[in-house]
Write a structure and sequence with these properties.
The protein is mostly beta strands. The chain contains one helix and seven strands. A hairpin with a 7-residue loop joins strand 4 and strand 5.
Length: about 110
Amino acid sequence: FSGLPETLFEVISNPIDVSAFSQLTIAFDFAFAAQDGANHDMFQVLISDDCGQSWVVRKSLYADINLATASNSSSPFIPNGDSEWKHEEVTIPSNFLRAVLWVNFY
């Protein structure tokens, strides 16, 4: 996956009924390599309980701090094995487990 500079991408879930949960963790795996040393890419996990009118950041990963899983690449990055993937988990606060939840990967 490769995008033009300054392009924003997001994936927003359909509404998820979370009312039956007393605790909830979202787990995901990711792989990332910057295309140059001055990369400003960022990945965030946000949640909403008001139809996406407002979002709360639950996890932020930054290219120059904790997003990279492999060395910089001058071509589009394709992970080469399990070592170039990371696993993250995001705990959802109990006050968001009342009814319906939206998750935004941004």
